[in-house]
């Protein structure tokens, strides 16, 4: 064997020495870190035990046990978010928050509930979830005593007492008690709906609405009424339902004192006093107090009739009109006159009928002063003054002041006899001729004078 040269020996010794130095430095670093951690733990423990919070915010005077706690807090004032997501660019004030957020992209949920197996992105999410099993609500309101499982829930609740709404929309000025409410509201301006259903593709502004929607597919109803056992897909729906048992109506009108079980019902009611009509038709500029009323009104412009009678195929703009129409086929007359006991198919017909007993004629002609029981009767009468005949026959062009006149006229072209006698099956062009014919069966008229 050849002996190594002196230079090679020296280089080998240097390499060994270098490795030894690196190992020594590593051990020193580990010991130093352990000492620092021990000191920090001791300091934190001491400050916790003595409730001393030496680090105070000069902006809001909130105090913290550690300097790091104050640094993180200061970012809530400055808006600084030094930790950014490399996937979507969203910024965070703390690294832990960024780490939790990153799991929404990776799908990782390392914190699992030992009771039900549900998993969470971060430890705090699991901590809050565990309280649904234990029932623990450590954060209580000093005013009404209501308790919450997390501090943020209590903070939001306190604003219901103070009326504080610190989060305002820069576009319309509407205020909210929490940032989530503002974020969801802003999407009403931008039209953004980032939460989509994987089953049907329907999108929502916030995750809560998506969660409730998914239950329409799964059939899950996790919220049960302890009184009657009825189940609901959303907690808010259960809360409203419980009020049907308790009779609670926590929302009161300051103008008339009337109370409501829902806040939305109070909001709508207040428009009676204020006259507010926030929903406007873009075609005729007519205002409405409810969005549903506007949607129904729009059909007068579009001609849309989405409600179809399954018996005769006739279509209607409103569901209520279809309901009333169906009673023609069923013969149901749920409204009875208290004077003559006559049955009517709808409430409006009953009101009009009652005027035949009272003699009331609230609709008067501005030209001749003649009074009428219904507004429609007045409208038809006014056409005798104006000469207006808006209903024209598409076959011969003959015009009529009433739609019923045109309908009857059309039978002269079609030969249709829509009204049949249930006894002899004889057909008639209108209801009046059928009524006259029916008397021949009852013996009230000797002969039928209808021309066929």
Q: What's the CATH class of one domain, please? A: Alpha Beta
CATH superfamily of one domain: Classic Zinc Finger
Give the helix level as a range of percent.
40-55%
Structural class: alpha+beta
Shape: elongated
Mean of the pLDDT scores?
83
Q: What would CATH call the architecture of one domain?
A: 2-Layer Sandwich
Named CATH topology of one domain = Double Stranded RNA Binding Domain
Largest sheet: 2 strands, antiparallel
Q: Radius of gyration in whole Å, from Cα?
A: 39 Å
| Uncertain segments | 41-50, 445-452
For the largest sheet, list the strands in their spatial order: 1-2
Describe the structure.
This protein is about 45% helix and about 10% strand. It is an alpha+beta fold and about 450 residues long. Among the domains are: about 70-135, 2-Layer Sandwich (Double Stranded RNA Binding Domain); about 330-440, Double Stranded RNA Binding Domain, CATH 3.30.160.60. The protein has a two-stranded antiparallel ribbon with strand order 1-2. Strands 3-4 form a two-stranded antiparallel ribbon. It has a two-stranded antiparallel sheet with strand order 5-6. A hairpin with a 6-residue loop joins strand 9 and strand 10 (about 175). The longest helix is centred in the first third of the chain and has 45 residues, at about 5-50. The chain is elongated and about 120 Å long.
């Amino acid at each position: 064997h050849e002996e190594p040269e002196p230079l090679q020996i020296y280089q080998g010794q240097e390499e060994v020495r270098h490795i030894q130095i690196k190992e020594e430095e590593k051990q020193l670093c580990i010991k130093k870190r352990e000492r620092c951690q021990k000191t920090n733990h001791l300091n934190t423990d001491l400050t916790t035990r003595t409730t001393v919070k030496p680090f105070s915010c000069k902006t809001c005077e909130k105090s913290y046990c550690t300097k790091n706690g104050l640094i993180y807090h200061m970012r809530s004032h400055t808006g600084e978010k030094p930790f950014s997501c490399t996937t979507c660019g969203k910024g965070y004030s703390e690294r832990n928050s960024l780490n939790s957020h990153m799991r929404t992209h990776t799908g990782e949920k390392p914190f699992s509930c030992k009771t039900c197996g549900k998993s969470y992105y971060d430890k705090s999410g699991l901590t809050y979830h565990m309280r649904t099993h234990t029932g623990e609500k450590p954060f209580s309101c000093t005013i009404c005593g209501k308790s919450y499982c997390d501090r943020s829930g209590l903070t939001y609740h306190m604003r219901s007492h103070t009326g504080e709404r610190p989060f305002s929309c820069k576009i319309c000025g509407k205020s909210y008690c929490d940032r989530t409410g503002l974020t969801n509201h802003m999407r009403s301006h931008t039209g953004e709906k980032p939460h989509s259903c994987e089953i049907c593709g329907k999108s929502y502004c916030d995750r809560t609405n998506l969660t409730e929607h998914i239950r329409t597919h799964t059939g899950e109803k996790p919220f049960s009424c302890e009184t009657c056992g009825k189940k609901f897909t959303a907690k808010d729906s259960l809360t409203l339902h419980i009020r049907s048992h308790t009779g609670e109506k926590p929302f009161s009108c300051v103008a008339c004192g009337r109370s409501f079980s829902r806040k939305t019902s109070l909001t709508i009611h207040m428009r009676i006093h204020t006259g507010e009509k926030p929903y406007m038709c873009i075609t005729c500029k007519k205002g409405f107090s409810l969005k549903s009323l506007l949607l129904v009104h729009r059909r007068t412009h579009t001609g849309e009739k989405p409600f179809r009678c399954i018996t005769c195929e006739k279509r209607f703009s409103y569901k209520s009109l279809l309901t009333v129409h169906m009673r023609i086929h069923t013969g149901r007359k749920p409204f009875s006159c208290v004077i003559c006991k006559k049955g009517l198919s709808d409430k409006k017909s009953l009101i009009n009928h009652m005027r035949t007993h009272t003699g009331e004629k609230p609709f008067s002609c501005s030209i001749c002063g003649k009074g009428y029981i219904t507004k429609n009767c007045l409208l038809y009468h006014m056409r005798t003054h104006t000469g207006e005949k808006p209903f024209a026959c598409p076959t011969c062009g003959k015009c009529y002041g009433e739609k019923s006149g045109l309908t009857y006229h059309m039978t002269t072209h079609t030969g249709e006899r829509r009204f049949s006698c249930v006894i002899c099956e004889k057909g008639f062009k209108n209801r009046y001729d059928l009524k006259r014919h029916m008397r021949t069966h009852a013996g009230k008229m000797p002969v039928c004078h209808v021309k066929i």
